[in-house]
Design goal:
The chain has 338 residues and is an alpha+beta fold. It has helices at residues 10-24, 103-128, 130-134, 140-143, 146-155, 161-165, 170-185, 200-208, 213-227, 232-239, 241-256, 264-272, 277-296, 315-322, 325-334, and strands at residues 29-31, 35-42, 48-64, 67-68, 73-74, 78-91, 97-99, 159-160, 189-192, 195-198, 262-263, 300-305, 308-313, 335-336. The longest helix has 26 residues, at 103-128.
């Protein structure tokens, strides 16, 4: 069917769409160029007819401020191009909104896009920094369950799932079983019905470092991070705040393609948004210690600028991150200036 002239112009429709989005969805999403087409619409009486409409894609440019530590001021804002997060359908003659996404659908799409970016950055960081992450002394509440599993296999030789794991709380049981499955995929453990035994890689490490349990576990962790980075949810259980902080510090630099020192206050503000309630307070108390531990293994570097503490990524790690094609591809599609 050939399109005829619409009653409203593209610019008029764009203004209506912009007004509707601001009033009903929010300030981050915005309308893209309208597309004139026909759509089958069902009336209240149940009668279907084709009407001329404008399809207006809703896109999201998520703002991010790059801080200049030398001038102590924010630089030009940049925007993460999250692409299409919804669509409006407007009557081409009247400008009436015929179909629209809900606020929750648009917010959900934005959240999903941001999580996709986070996952890629986290996976690349884990893969690139595997040896350094493996050297971090993990507090007890974080290293459960991976080091518990590896330690038990090194000392006792096997784990009885029914006797030792099935009796745990539902939350802990889920964590342990998830880690066991991930470790099995990468030959660190072997499962035989209800029992867990050392896998080929763990046995090889025992042969390479006889009676040096700490070295065996460190190398086992490095192997897991290097080979199993796709198991990002399991790895987050292990690395917890260390991975979050590394991402905060490296992500800004990756976006501007140069190492940028990040002020403590910005690190703190971003870090605390990942936690709520009592856990948020506890994590903030531990934040300086986490940063020092990341310094110790060479994942980040400390700098004092204008008398204020800053941290930046390690040059070698940063350069290795930039070689990862999955990460560079998503960054090229992601970054836009407005």
């Amino acid at each position: 069917m050939r399109l005829v002239d619409a009653g409203m112009s593209e610019s008029e429709i764009l203004k209506k769409a912009h007004k509707f989005i601001r009033e009903n969805i929010g300030s981050v999403p915005s309308p893209k160029k309208p597309i004139l087409t026909f759509k089958e619409i069902e009336s209240l009486e149940g009668v279907k007819k084709k009407v001329m409409v404008y399809e207006v894609p809703i896109v999201a440019y998520f703002p991010t401020i790059i801080y200049d530590p030398y001038l102590a001021t924010p630089t030009k804002p940049r925007f993460k191009n999250l692409g299409e997060v919804g669509k409006l359908i407007l009557d081409a003659n009247t400008g009436e909104v015929i179909e629209k996404p809900t606020v929750y659908q648009v917010r959900g799409a934005i959240k999903s896009k941001l999580e996709e970016i986070t996952n890629v950055v986290d996976k690349t960081l884990v893969k690139t920094g595997a040896e350094k992450f493996s050297q971090i002394t993990l507090p007890e509440h974080i290293h459960t369950p991976i080091i518990d599993i590896l330690s038990s296999l090194l000392i006792i030789g096997k784990i009885d799932i029914e006797m030792e794991i099935e009796e745990l709380s539902s939350e802990d049981k889920t964590k342990y079983l998830r880690i066991i499955n991930a470790l099995e995929k990468h030959e660190l453990v072997e499962r035989d019905n209800n029992f867990i035994y050392p896998g080929n890689v763990l046995i090889e490490l025992e042969e390479k470092f006889p009676q040096e349990h700490d070295k065996i576990i460190t190398n086992a962790l490095a192997h897991f991070f290097r080979q199993g980075y796709e198991e990002i949810d399991s790895i987050r259980i292990v690395l917890g705040p260390f991975l979050i902080l590394s991402r905060i510090i490296y992500e800004t630099s990756l976006e501007v393609d140069t190492i940028v020192p990040v002020p403590f206050e910005i690190i703190k503000d971003t870090f605390e948004k990942g936690y709520t309630g009592k856990l948020q307070k506890l994590k903030l108390i531990k934040l300086p210690r986490y940063l020092i531990q990341l310094e110790k293994v060479g994942l980040i570097k400390y700098r004092e600028i204008h008398g204020e503490p800053h941290w930046e990524g390690d040059k070698d790690v940063f350069n290795e991150l930039k070689k990862d094609t999955e990460l560079t591809d998503i960054l090229e599609k992601l970054l836009a200036e407005i």
